[in-house]
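protien #1 (seq + structre)
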Amino acid sequence: MRTSAETRGGSRPGRRLPLRLIALILAAAGAAWILPGAAWADGTHGTHDSATGSGPLGAAIRLAVLLAVGTVAGAGVVRPLTGPPARRTATAVSIAGAVAATGALAVVDRPLLAIALGTLTLGVALSLGRTPPAFAGGVALCAAYAVMASDGRVTQAAIAVGAAVWLGASLPLLTTGSLPEGRRLAPWLAISGAASIVAGIVQADLPKTVAVAGLAITAPALLYRGGPRKAATVGMAGVVTAGIALTAVPGSEVLRPGVPVLHSVALGGDPVPVLLAPQRPGWNVVHTGDRQVSVGTDADRLTATARSPGATGTWGMVWLPPGPGRLWIRGGGRTASVRIDAGRGVATSPQIRTDGPECASAALGGLAAGGSPAPLRSCPAQALGTADAGALRAALGFIAGRGVRSVFLAGDGSPRSRAAATVIRDAAAGAGLTVAAEPGARRPIVVVSGWSAAESTLRDIAGGRVRGEGAYLAPWLLSAPLLAIPAGQVLPLRFSPRDPVPLKYAALLQERFHGAVPTKVGFDRWQEAQGRADTGPAKLYAASLVTFMPTRPGETHPHTGTSWLPGGTITVASGPLR
């Protein structure tokens, strides 16, 4: 027979211990969902450059704030189901609220936000005895919690909300050890767990799933202690198993060596985009938009980013040792970091030192394709593509058709440029043209170098230091800074930058990296990721400048919209080339 205590909603003393063990596992599962992916928790949302803003102490405080806010938010959301909280539950929530409010003042870099977060958290904790204010405050706090823990990713925001509800629903069971309490909370645990599973599928870590499989199998055994008596007990065991299995869903993207890293950090003011490519041992390029900051793998030894010829924005170079680590970014008196993992292997940096921005632009194109990005196994300057080689032959045929007798070739030492030079020389020989050793007034200049050398060549032409009858650029030199230099340049392309698909790419690029201007190498990588390619005949295109003026070295300029040439347009200048 049941005792009077059981009839009133209690549970046998023998069951309190296993139930509390289960509750502890549930709470740990909730923490495991959210903590690995909370960019704010490890400082990637930006912090004060102080003892509490960065380093182990700051990280510990931020993690404590995240757990506390999530617990209070979840407790408020499940309040309509749990009824008036037990004294231990109310005390635990109040302590969590105090921890969140105090910790927020120490680590949130905007005082008004810190005060607002602390006030809301304490308000929910202190109103837990009344359902309407506790539930309304819990929903609002869950929204704030999703923003804190998501770093702008919708899937991570969903996981954060699920984890908050999971933590809040686990707390009454942990503090009371009551089986009826667990039965009432089981639906909330199941719903929040299912939501986090769906949101976490795209971020799943299969090795971790295997690692926790044993724990997931043994979890129901805790509930069976003393023998299963009710179907609800079996259902609860299933919910617990699902919850434990969810610890396999990390709260952030799995870092894969060779896959470029794209994040956004807060250093005061607007968020600063950060792109690292290729995330391999050796030299890597870092792009931070138009914001000049300092970057490095050692927080005490950072190097300032700077403009790179032929590219927009600011750039830096970092040497990555093998294995996991952090990329540190400092600006405006604040410091942030991003988790990285260069993997194992010999340090190799093909063309990164000379063609890093072009390589990063290709990496950004792959990331803009969405889905699971492929590793960046090579940079564009490492090889000449078949389509580009054909476009160069067609352009040389156009030049020969104008009655020109010779051309001047401007290249560099990259494998792609050397291969392109061979294509040009062979095509010139077949068309009866001479590749001259020096430029001349009636001699077209064919530019097959990378971005950096191409900018120098075009500025020399525009400044009259190099004489030539126009400049014919290789297709991969489709980049706004190069087209903005008034040097009479044209280039062969198999697509029009004003067509719907290139404009769609430009829009997606803006979503992933605000201020980025599309380039052909990025567009090619984006199409390749989707199994597409432009196969039509090449045409010559020229830049028509309206208000876009070329920058002087050291200057940057804003870029908005989806134009391939901000302040101007790129128009067709010939029919199909043969």
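ok now protien #2
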Amino acid sequence: MARHTTRRTSKHLLRHCKTATDNDFWTTKLIDAEELKTRQADYCDTVPSDFKVIFYESMSGARMMDSPYALFIRLYHEPEFRDYHHVWSVRSFDLIPDDFEDDPRVTFVTRNTDAYQYFLALAGFVIGNSLLPDYFVRKPEQKYLNTWHGIAYKALGRTQSSPLGAAGSVYNLLQATHVLTPCPDMTETELSRFSLRGVYSGSMAEVGYPRQDLTLNLSKDDGEGIRDQLGLDPAKKTILYAPTWRGNKGSARFDAEQLEKDITSLMKLDANVIFQAHHIMLRHIKNVDYGNVIVPPSHIVTNELLGITDLLISDYSSIFFDFLATGRPIVHYLYDYGHYADERGLLLDKSELPGPIVATADELVATVNGLISDDYVPTKHYRSAQKKFCPHDDGNATSRTINWFIRDDASDVNLIETRERPSIIFWGGRLDNGKKTEEFLRSVGEAAERGDRDVTLLVARSVNSNKSAMDHIRQLGLSISVITRNDFEMVMTSAEAEARIRKGTTRHQTAEEPLSRWVRLKSLVSRSKEPIKTKDVLLDDMYHREYRRIFGDAQFDELVMFPGASQFWRRLAAHAVSDGKHHQEGQR
């Protein structure tokens, strides 16, 4: 495994020696959650940022894919960025494409290793499309672009059944210096369902997804190369079936028996039929017989596969939004619509879908045969969907994103104002089951009704078990941003951890500590001079880091404190307003 590491790492990035950056540095995963947090904090505290290093991750390291991949490919090939180093997070070194196997300009790391944490701290630029680890706290000088990974079709974020939303997604987006959206519809989804409105302090822009450029700009030669790899018959149309998984995260599933029946039906088509599974589905369909249906290897990029596709069959996957930009036919195969809509929730009505909707395999085959037998002309309804969901899909989203994110040139993007009014945050914390909570949450709603400020509510995840509080929060609606702090021990450096139990002054890593692997690594990567900090300064740094983990660089104009808030919540609140003003409820 070591051949995947030091050989492809530029020497100026890591002043390594074999005793420090041995195989463990690259392959051994830190298991203890608190050790992971402390190690990442220590790396961030000691490793200076390098703005010629770019760190990429797609779907927690699933593979090189999506908009981060589209940006990487462009940056990798542009002469202006020839001396930049690219670091990719992958779940396994087996996922490394042959083209980059021994490339000295590209490094591959896996999550929760020292190598991952080191490069995540080193990179001046971070690009992701989902969630980075929960211990990630962007360094103040780092630039972090979150592209997200698709237009919302399925319910996500804050919903009636989940009024507190998805805390991890909110943290990642609020920490980002740049948030990219493809269209007004998705902009509103992120502002409301991920609670960015009135909170997010970075640069948000409607740019279009860079991954779309891989589809729209696919060259003839590259298209032929993919067709050759897949063994497609050039005399036949190519159909891609790309369904998504069922259930919810943590309980994902897919009906393999249903899939086999559908595969059997699709084999009746006089066409090249390709089956592309969502990466979450793969573990649920290991023993499916695909017959003569083609399953592409993982190294073929989905958006490039769309470039050679003549017709797409999908269900509730957002892949249809990507294909919509091509103007080619889409069939929505919704055999379990009622059950899926009830279980998972959908943000689009059937009437908003651009293509024909079918519910049985026989209808599917008949509809597909009809669409591929003649030249397709998009309907008025299809064109309307393109206008709504694909306004920026012109093949230039990658260039616009690089100008905006890397070059600080926003002249070609549609910037979104996320904070249009003065902001107020109601600092609830854990709340309680009493009258104080009822009055506090009522005041949140009253502040929103006045309409003169952007209103945000902060609560602890434990509030989820407080039925009365949850009923109030559910009634607040999406015009109020709700930020939830999960039960989470704070990320802290080793010095800060000591400061919680020691008095007086302490130095980062004392001489009497055992010579751990971290101590040896630290001597190689640390800044030239480490500051000496008092206990109070160290503890303040710890709370500030925790605030930034949740809110990024957001600051509020006014803060209303829940009267029963503990010392922890009060110390955290000290970092929320620039002038230090706090207010008890009823004393504003």
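The chain has three domains: 2-212, 223-389, 423-584.
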